[in-house]
Each structure stands twice: as C-alpha cells, then as structure tokens.
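FAQ
Q: What does a multi-component entry look like?
A: The components come first, one per line:
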Amino acid sequence: MEETVLVVVAHPDDQIFGPGGAIAKYAKEGKSVRTIIASYGEKSHPHFKQEVIRDIRVKESERADRLIGGKGIEYWGVREGKFASDFESMNLRERLIDVLETYKPVKIFTHARNETHPDHVAINSFVLSCYDEVAKNHEWFNPPVYTFTVWNYFRIKKRDVPRLIVDVSDTFRVKLAALSLFKSQIITMINLKWSVYLKAFVTGFRNNTSFAEEFYKVR
Ligand SMILES: [Zn+2]
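Then the predicted structure of the entire assembly, as tokens:
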C-alpha cells in the first residue's frame, strides 16, 4: 500500500497556503496525499448564496488537488465559527479516528495552535485530541504531526519545539500555480501570495536552498 500523508485543514485553500509545496513533493515521491477540509468557507462571500460559494470552492480545491497530485479531498461541511459543536453533533471524532486507523498516515499536517483564526485553532486541538486517542489505543500508531501557520507569519515566536524543514524548490511553482486556482479568493490571494513567496524564500535562504517550508513537530 502507498504511504499516506494526511492533511487536515479548516477551509478550502489552507492546504495549499500551508503545506502546498511539501505535499506536492510527497505526491511526486509516490506518497498518497489525502486532504480533509472541515468547512466549505461559505462565509468568505456573504453576498452570494452559500450553495454557490460551496460549489465554487469545492471546484477550486479539486483542481488544486489534481495539480499538486493529491489523492482526493473529504469535506466535512462544518459551519464556520461552530467547529467544536459541529465536530460533536456530526460525530466527526469517530470519523477522523476511523481515517487515522484506516489509512495509518506516515505524516500528518494541520494548523498550528498559535494561529489567529479561531477555526484553525479548533482544528488543531481536534486533530491532536483524536490523534492522542488513537495513540492510546494502538501502540503502532505514532506518526509525526506537523503544524503550520497561514495567517500570522510575522508573529511566529521562536519556540523550543523540533522543526521540519522541507526543501520545496522543485514544487514551489506548483504551489503558486495551485494558489492561483482559488479565483474566488482573489482579494485574500493578493494579500497572501506575497507573504507565501517571502516566507518560502526566507526559509529557503536560512536553509541554503531556494524555497522551503517550515513546520513545527508537535507529536
Ligand atoms: Zn483557513
């Protein structure tokens, strides 16, 4: 069986903004990259009908997933701002535990705890709590969990936790191309694309390569 890399994020496009270069690289190496997106991100466009936004954002995410070589996305349809209560009422704890036990991911990527967006923080604690439950029940379960930040680049504190640096020089262009597919997020994109570029460039420079992504290992 192909090794699985699991990505769990709050909104469509977080998976590309965060670990886009790394997961494109793992896919290129033959790993099976699976993504879970908790919310459709409908609130990003309050003027449109929610179903319309949902369709657009799903299409964008699917195209981006194909571009980075991913093996598919699972959508949970959680309401923004209501993550914790929806996780419970929709039995998503069981769902995620099932995914962890079935696919036995070799690496897991998710949002960092020190994020500014409350939905991102909610994902972080939910993933880690499900992870800990599986680890408690199965001795064989101990893949690393890596976290990333999307929104607070300039506020990252140097924390005393192990890091993973992934050289994404070969796949950084794919990441940028995948980001451009999120046309419905054009305003956000303009703000974020520069920071994505700068972040990968600075991290690359510090690690003697062109572009790199940096993650905190929290498990
Ligand atoms: Zn997000």
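Q: Is there any commentary attached?
A: Sometimes. For this entry: The mean pLDDT is 91.
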